[in-house]
Amino acid sequence: MKLQLKPVLLGVALVAITCMTIIALILTIVNRQSAELPYSTQYGMVFDAGSSHTALFLYQWPGNKENNTGIVSQTMMCDVKGDGISSYVTNISGAGASLKECLNVAMATIPASQQKTTPAYLGATAGMRLLNLQNNTLSDQILKEVAKTMQSYPFDFRGAKIISGMEEGAYGWITINYLLESFIKYGFDGKWIHPKSGTILGALDLGGASTQISFLPKEPVKNPQSAFDLQLYSYRYQLYTHSYLCYGKDQALKKLHAYLQKTTSPSSVIKHPCFHIGYNLTVKLSDIYNSPCVNPPTPYDPLAQVTFLGTGNSALCMSMIENIVNITNCTLYPDCGFNGVYQPPVNGEFFAFSAYFYTFDFLGLAPKASLSRVNSTIESFCNKNWTTLVAEYPNVKEKYLRDYCFSAHYIMVILLKGYKFGSSWDKISFQKQVADTDIGWTLGYMLNLTNMLPSHHPLVVTGVHNSQWAAEVFFIVFALFLALLIIIVLCVWGPTT
Ligand SMILES: Nc1ncnc2c1ncn2[C@@H]1O[C@H](COP(=O)(O)OP(=O)(O)O)[C@@H](O)[C@H]1O
Ligand SMILES: [Ca+2]
Prior knowledge:
Blueprint: H1 5-30, E1 41-49, E2 54-62, E3 73-79, H2 92-97, H3 100-109, H4 112-115, E4 119-124, H5 126-134, H6 136-151, E5 156-162, H7 165-179, E6 185-186, E7 192-193, E8 202-206, E9 210-215, E10 227-232, E11 235-245, H8 249-264, E12 269-272, E13 280-284, H9 285-288, E14 305-310, H10 314-324, E15 350-354, H11 355-362, H12 371-382, H13 386-392, H14 398-418, E16 428-430, E17 433-434, E18 437-438, H15 441-449, H16 466-493
Parallel strand pairs: 1-4, 4-5, 8-15, 12-14, 15-16
Antiparallel strand pairs: 1-2, 2-3, 6-7, 8-9, 9-11, 10-11, 13-14, 17-18
Helix pairs in contact: 1-16, 5-6, 7-15, 8-10, 10-14, 11-14, 12-14
GO molecular function: apyrase activity; ATP binding; GDP phosphatase activity; metal ion binding; ribonucleoside triphosphate phosphatase activity; UDP phosphatase activity
Keywords: ATP-binding, Calcium, Cell membrane, Disulfide bond, Glycoprotein, Hydrolase, Magnesium, Membrane, Metal-binding, Nucleotide-binding, Transmembrane, Transmembrane helix
GO cellular component, one term: plasma membrane
């Protein structure tokens, strides 16, 4: 009997098609991953309740789960009027009321439908840490008041608390490196790539009441109290971070005043080398000794007055500051920052922000300037007469203008003699923002508390719309049905015709 070739080939082809269709069907159904598409912008807010003032930062990101790279950005920033919340000790309810103006701005910015799902945090830093040391009942009452005000808004209130110095340092470091995409990057080939570890930056934050340094050292951190272990996007980091309480620039100035007062006593007129010639300041002794950062002489009259007379003497200003920043005492460890605090040698590039930036920006030294230009600029600025200066900068707040000479010298002492940046001065960049977002601890804090910093590498899936997926399944099932039907017809009638 002659074999009929055509129906046999057709049958083989149909069987092959059927098998492929069944495999396609299994793959389409079994390995189904659902991915949400961006549906709308989401928001999150953090109050930075600093020692000198409070600011509200509002962040936004696309409303899906793909926010685990540098997608979160700052939508708005609102400066709360008045001083920091720790200054409300005699008017506790005022601390809560002070936040209302900025909360109203947030209400006007966030669409009504999103307000309920907007997480809202308040983190207080060194001013409240100090108040907590002095009188924890008062600091608790202030935190309760600010929480009450925040809860009176529709936002998803997640807490008002004092953050630790280590958290403050680590979150500042996370903010910088998140914004610079140093943890993870989306490459041109559509794959996630992990940039080389050398591209991770260190963070230098100078506040009013504390100062923080955070970086990845070359060597393992020897003191566990300064080690911060993190796992981000499948990589482990051991961060060195230290917060020097009482060494923010305002408390450091208080320390200098206490030093000058004690060493000149009983005179009530005291030469001040970091104030400009022509600037005089009269204060009560209680204004100097009202902080846990300074030890009052015993006995002392809180109401007695002293007058500081500016002499604008750069060399003396620098050496006086060296008296309040102990740079010699490093007995317990092979390497130290200042005050005998363990610190491995600095490593890599750094961003210096907050008062580091304000001071260097004002002096025209940001983002970078050579050491010789920095030194000569500070010296000639400190030499300026106060009257000339006020006329030259009519729009600069007097409290800032008065302090730039001191702050600049203080910055040089802690960076060069404290942290020992001498040979790596050019590694420091004085910055305020990255990608239109302010550098500070608040973004890192929010990313962490909202679980937007995964410890594992993000999974990339290529997806289709649900309707397209249903159409694909329907088409495959239909093709399968048709193929089976033809095979049956061929088997029954094919070979005999
Ligand atoms: N425009 C500015 N010029 C100079 N200094 C500023 C400016 N804005 C803020 N500062 C200073 O920056 C510091 C910010 O510290 P802050 O965040 O309030 O305290 P902390 O972080 O210690 O709790 C303060 O010393 C404040 O005076
Ligand atoms: Ca701060």
